[in-house]
Design brief:
BirA Bifunctional Protein, domain 2; 2 domains; nine-stranded mixed β-sheet; five-stranded mixed β-sheet; 18 helices; about 40% helix; elongated
Length: about 500
């Protein structure tokens, strides 16, 4: 037997080819495997829509879409709100939809559990903003601003129960107005209450009442009634439920769930069930227990001054000093307020819609200092308009009255009764657009005139400009009123002027 090292080159090549070649069964399996992959890819390409999707097409719980008609209503509401903010000298501001988690979690008390946390992204723990107030305070501290009057319209997120009842959602829009800076007492606060009155009156939502209280008075009541200071905030959040629950249920929660002594709860009940006007303020000045508390006296003095300014503004008939109002958020330090509708603008015989508060706010003098490295204070007071609840009410009213809503603002439709007039229509509509006139035209080369006129009637477009062979020959265009169906011919060069005249008269 020859030694391996002395084998001829051809023998070595044959040996290696035998060793490297896979067995016949392996080749067959590989080919079969590649064939199956190719077949599955081909099948997925040929039949992408034949399989039933294994998911339900829906919006996430607590969110909603808004149709074009609904957007028209929302934009009108927002226009009333923002116009009022601007009338009072506010500047616009926007902040990110999410903030550092640590910026949010310490400011909402028991409601902190409703904050939406996001996964760690790039080494930062983030949360969706819960309101627009804390981001504003962060903005002031970060930019070292000591004075600002701002408005902000934006979405916020709260992980509440997904049951959608009368305007409550997990994702919703807020409209905020805030005044930051050191000013004489109660002047900015009075302006905030005046703004709420202006907006709710302008939206014609029906009768409303603004409840007013002061966190210093609440804390004073807790102190003289014997509530341990460590329980002030948790008891405050219970009192805040008095607009939704009877006193007996709130008392039960304070005693059984939050460990308050029954006699202390009863003493609190003597106060928090009181409401009235400036006369109640005077009455509490004489209260033997409350008049001994420094915090409460400061709050009562400010409320008395506030009522003086509200009298000058002529809105005291819309204001009620209500000791049950607590506003559970931790950052409030002084005057707090909340606007509620007494009835809806629906028919008198209909059941009133209970939608809760439609605006709220208050003073928060310590919040900016929490974000400032040196703890510098910037006193602030502000308000928030509940757009979703207002939208719900307006929408219900429009449904009850059978009001139709135009989804577009188109003023003129450019039409033709004949074929091959696309170029002339394009010239006409470009001229209208350049003049600032809101105009549409069909995207077909040869549309039917009747379908064009039906479109205008269905969408509420008031005017139609018609160009055809006869009009082109005579150098004119026809203007048709959709409502009356009357037509008039005008010179081609006078079209824009005539359209503008008609629109200004309508």
């Amino acid at each position: 037997m020859p030694q391996l090292g002395l084998l001829p080159k051809r023998a070595w090549a044959a040996l290696f080819s035998q060793l490297l070649r896979p067995p016949p069964s392996a080749c067959t399996q590989a080919v079969r495997g590649h064939s199956q992959v190719a077949e599955s890819v081909l099948t997925s390409q040929l039949k992408p829509h034949q399989e039933t999707p294994n998911f339900i097409i829906k919006t996430p719980k607590g969110t909603r879409d808004f149709s074009p008609q609904q957007m028209v209503v929302r934009e009108k509401i927002l226009d009333v709100v923002v116009s009022c903010f601007k009338r009072h000298g506010a500047q616009g501001l926007d902040t990110p939809a999410f903030e550092l988690k640590e910026m949010l979690t310490e400011n909402y008390g028991e409601n902190s559990g409703l904050i939406y946390d996001l996964k760690d992204q790039g080494g930062e723990l983030l949360s969706l903003r819960y309101d627009l107030t804390v981001p504003f305070a962060r903005y002031l501290a970060m930019n070292k601003l000591k004075k600002m009057k701002r408005y902000h319209v934006g979405k916020v997120w709260r992980r509440e129960s997904p049951a959608i009842v009368q305007g409550r959602y997990r994702e919703f829009c807020q409209c905020d107005f805030d005044i930051a800076g050191q000013f004489d007492p109660m002047i900015p606060d009075a302006e905030c209450l005046k703004i709420i009155c202006e907006i709710l009156s302008g939206l014609q939502l029906g009768n409303f009442l603004i409840k007013v209280n002061d966190r210093r008075i609440i804390d004073g009541v807790f102190a003289v009634c014997g509530v341990p200071e460590s329980k002030f905030r948790v008891i405050c959040s219970s009192i805040d439920k008095l607009d939704k629950m009877p006193w007996t249920d709130v008392r039960h929660e304070m005693v059984t769930k939050k460990g308050l002594a029954p006699e202390v709860a009863d003493r609190i009940g003597d106060y928090v069930q009181c409401h009235g006007g400036v006369s109640l303020v005077e009455q509490l000045f004489q209260d033997p227990r409350l008049s001994q508390n420094k915090q409460a006296l400061e709050g009562l003095r400010d409320l008395k001054l506030l009522f003086e300014y509200l009298t000058l503004f002529g809105i005291t008939d819309k204001i009620s000093f209500d000791l049950s109002l607590a506003r559970g958020l931790d950052y409030y330090t002084g005057v707090i307020y909340e606007a509620v509708l007494l009835q809806t603008p629906a028919q008198a015989e209909e059941e009133p819609l209970n939608v809760g508060s439609v605006a709220a706010g208050g003073r928060y003098d310590e919040l900016v200092a929490m974000f400032d490295p040196k703890g510098h204070k910037v006193p602030c007071v502000g308000l928030s308009i509940g757009v979703e609840r207002i939208f719900y009410i307006v929408e219900q009213r429009m449904k009850a009255l059978g009001e139709k809503i135009r989804a577009t603002e188109t003023q003129v439709f450019v039409a033709t009764p004949q074929k091959n007039f696309l170029q002339e229509r394009l010239k006409l509509i470009a001229e209208l657009w350049d003049a600032g006139i809101k105009a549409e035209m069909p995207y077909k080369n040869n549309p039917k005139l009747l379908s064009q006129l039906h479109y205008c009637e269905n969408t509420g477009i008031p005017l139609v400009v018609i160009i055809g062979e006869q009009e082109l020959k005579e150098g004119v265009v026809k203007i048709r009123s959709v409502a009356s169906r009357g037509e008039v011919a005008v010179k081609r060069e006078d079209l824009v002027t005539e359209i503008q005249k008609r629109l200004s008269e309508s």
